[in-house]
Amino acid sequence: MTVKRRALKWSDVGLSSLPIGQPCLSDNSFLTNPITHTDTMSPLLKIILLLLSAYSPPRSSGDDGGESFFKTCPPTKCSKRGPTVRYPLRLNTQPSFCGREGSELSCSANGSTLFHLPFSGSYLVDSINYYRRRISLEVQDCPLQSLLSMNRTGSILEYLSTDLLVVNCTTGGGAIDGMAGPIDCLQNDKDWVYVTDAGATMDKLPTNCSISGSGAIVFDGRDLVAGVERILRTRKIFMDWRFDEGCNDCEKNGNYCGINTSTNGTFCMNPRHPSK
Hints:
Layout: E1 6-7, H1 29-32, E2 36-37, H2 43-54, H3 66-72, E3 90-91, E4 104-107, E5 113-117, E6 121-129, E7 134-138, H4 143-149, E8 164-169, E9 179-180, E10 192-197, E11 209-215, H5 224-234, E12 236-240, H6 247-252, E13 256-260, E14 265-269
Parallel strand pairs: 3-4
Antiparallel strand pairs: 1-2, 4-5, 5-6, 6-7, 7-12, 8-10, 8-11, 9-10, 13-14
Catalytic activity: S-ubiquitinyl-[E2 ubiquitin-conjugating enzyme]-L-cysteine + [acceptor protein]-L-lysine = [E2 ubiquitin-conjugating enzyme]-L-cysteine + N(6)-ubiquitinyl-[acceptor protein]-L-lysine
Membrane topology: Single-pass membrane protein
InterPro entries: ATL20-22-like (IPR046948), WAK_GUB (IPR025287)
């Protein structure tokens, strides 16, 4: 007796069509050719074959809008030697979604990179460290004055707790143990100005000195006094930006972080292999 063979239809298991957006796996031979069966094929086997054909592995984060994001918002520079600008920062010539709110940078006429603070003006950018979430700014006049007066409102910059005290001394001019200074650009005609760690014991403060202000500072190392002296010497101040969920581990591994504008969630992409 001859057994009749017919092509398998979706209606055999109650399905009208293959779900939209679920491509068949290309590495299964039974998907590259029409599936046929005998009338004696078990219903369970039919269902298993159809489920396998409809299955598609989940996309990696790099496929989920990643390539299109970096085509629209590619890493860029103001000059050949300038720092790379990319998410969460952006240049003002790029669409607003290329960076987080308050992350706008611009290029000067001579190719310098400028970071704009809505209430404190623009600062010259020296370097950007995406893993440490840190931007280094050059301040030529009085770096500590800029640091103490800087208004971070409306920017991506992180608000820091007070860890620095400004101390005015009526007499002095020389080094004082545990303090950085005297700081020429902060002093006036009457007082010598120093800075010290806010956690320092105040009973060690010289009797001719009093606290006149406070502020926050970002520096490398644990010694605040050494950190302040380095700022005064290099005329560079450091600023950290706020943490972005998922980006820290991404940048740590040498990848680039971006944002999916549809879900408003971040994704991670290998810059050397964008499709992975």
